[in-house]
Amino acid sequence: MAERAFSATRLPGFAMIAVAVFLVLYLPIFTLVIFSFNDANSVAIWGGFSLRWYQIAWANDAVKEAAVRSLIIATSAALIATTVATMAALGTTRRAAFKGQTLIYVIINQPLMVPEIVTAVALLIFFGFIKVTTGYQGLGYLIAAHSAFCVPFAYLPIRARLEGMDLSLETAAADLYATPWQTFRKVTLPILLPGIIAGAMLAFVISLDDVVITEFVKSGGQDTLPTYMLGQIRRAVTPDVNAISTALLVLTVLLLTAFFLLTRRRD
Amino acid sequence: MPSNENRQRAASARTGWALSAPALLLLGFAASGPLLIVLVYSFLTPGDYGNVVWKFSLDGWRGILFTRDIFDGTLHLADANLTIFWRSVKLSLLTTAITFAVGFPTAWFIATRPAKSRALWLFLITIPFWTNLLIRTVAINEVIRNEGIINTLLIWTGLITEPLRIIYTDTAVLIGMAYVYLPLMVLPLFAAIDRFDMKLLEAGYDLYASRWQVLRRVILPIVKPGIVAGSILVFVPSLGAYVTPRVLGGGKNMMIGNFIELQFGAGRNWPLGAALSMTLLIIVTVALLFYVRAANRGSPHG
């Protein structure tokens, strides 16, 4: 019997722990997905396949409204964040380092560093003040808050794409008497587009997932899917929460897979 | 007279600022700017029905550690607050330790896979990283609840008759945080191990080092920046955690994040909530400065 060849990179037990980690990481999520199709009222005992929790969730007006609100906010936030992030990425790459550039980086990436609960409290105070002063109670606050914390997620992939870009194409366009705007529209933007789409998708996912900031900024009756779920869990966990989670999960995984396919081409 | 080149540089800097301006305005309005208001509020007096009265006071900051006796006005250490801080720090450190203990072998495993399957393993770690933290907390909740999978299975097999009470304990919060923050440990560890030159291992073994000696004397010192990065990336969000302790800890097992929320809700002490937020922000900033230093040391130029 051949003994296993000595491998310098093998450390005893590591592979076993790693496989266990992957199992532990995915089993709860799979269980949640499977039990969303459960016919019984339990989230632990299987009673046959059914779509009834999806029907129950969809028949619930509160869920439907929260779903629509989540999509409106995520779409608006992704559009706004991606637009300003694209401009900022163009402003901070491919030019000589200038004074204050580090400050711009710090401010743009600030939402990644400050604990969410602190930002949430800050916005509760600040937007509360504006709400009282102006009387406006609409979705604008949530859209502004979401747009802001989505900026770094949109900025980073766009910047990565820009830094990997060949300058000579733009120089060539300028040599052929293209105006700076024409060069941007016809040369830079098309090359940059995968980065922009990737950034927009990350921003969308991040906005769709947010709980803490939304919970503090929303006015009465402005639940998004995650804050609706948070409110539900407090009472009792029912399988319709599994159904909503599964729907959100599927959307996220689809967008992430598309994101990885879009950004992989660079390597 | 400024040279042509200088003028071009100045113009380029102006364009840079102009293009960044919309992003900076947005973040100033709905992220960075309001933090200053929190700082101001931490020095004001609480209003009777929440919010603040515009009168300077240090009570918010004092209230972090002390309570004032309602009869004689003397200051005492606030035991309830200290319990919450201790729980937050303890659970965050334990979360960091657990995620490192299981995350290091996982990162090592991924980094030593053949190039083709490595991308897939990495993707499998990244998916939970990007999926909703609330959903992952709900998933864990359904595993450890009294009527959850673990208890249902154990009762069904007859090993126990009463459900194990895990939910709404510190252990539940710890399990939940280790589960949701694990990818934040694995990713930087992987990045560090991936750069590690595996020939050093052969050199170690050629010199008759045992596996344990190679791990301790060769691998760990070299991937240390990755360890520091992963630990801080886990510790920082753990300390500010809000959703996981709220869902798995119930009302009693609060962490700092929930304690802050309480001040803006039933506690009606906005200045204390503001001072607590600032304290959390300061701790996180210090931790991140360590991170930046460690990251710079890890780079080849450092």
Q: Enumerate how many helices of chain B there are, as a single number.
A: 13
* DSSP E strands of chain A, number: 0
State the end-to-end distance of chain A.
Answer: 42 Å
Instruction: Specify the number of helices of chain A.
Output: 11
Structural class designation of chain A: mainly alpha
Most extensive chain-chain interface: A-B, 92 and 91 residues
Number of domains of chain A: 2
According to CATH, the homologous superfamily of the largest domain in chain B is MetI-like
Strand content of chain A: under 5%
C-alpha-based Rg of chain A, rounded: 23 Å
Task: Name the overall outline of chain A.
Answer: globular
- Order of SSEs of chain B: HEEHEEHHHHHHHHHHH
* Low-pLDDT segments of chain A: none
> Can you identify the CATH class of the largest domain in chain A?
Mainly Alpha
User: How many strands, what sense, and barrel or not for the largest sheet of chain B?
Assistant: 2 strands, antiparallel
CATH class of the largest domain in chain B: Mainly Alpha
How is the CATH topology of the largest domain in chain A named? MetI-like fold
Number of strands of chain B: 4
Can you tell me about this structure?
The complex is a heterodimer of chains A (267) and B (302). Chain A is mainly alpha-helical. Chain A has two domains: 11-50, no CATH class; 60-264, MetI-like (MetI-like fold, Orthogonal Bundle), CATH 1.10.3720.10. Chain A has eleven helices and no strands. Chain B folds into two domains: 1-35; 78-298, Orthogonal Bundle (MetI-like fold). In chain B, the strands form two sheets. Chain B has a two-stranded antiparallel sheet with strand order 1-2. A two-stranded antiparallel ribbon of chain B has the order 3-4. In chain B, a hairpin with a 5-residue loop joins strand 1 and strand 2. In chain B, helix 10 (224-239) packs antiparallel against helix 13 (270-298). Chains A and B meet through helix 1, helix 3, helix 4, helix 5 and helix 6 of A and helix 1, helix 3, helix 4, helix 5 and helix 6 of B.
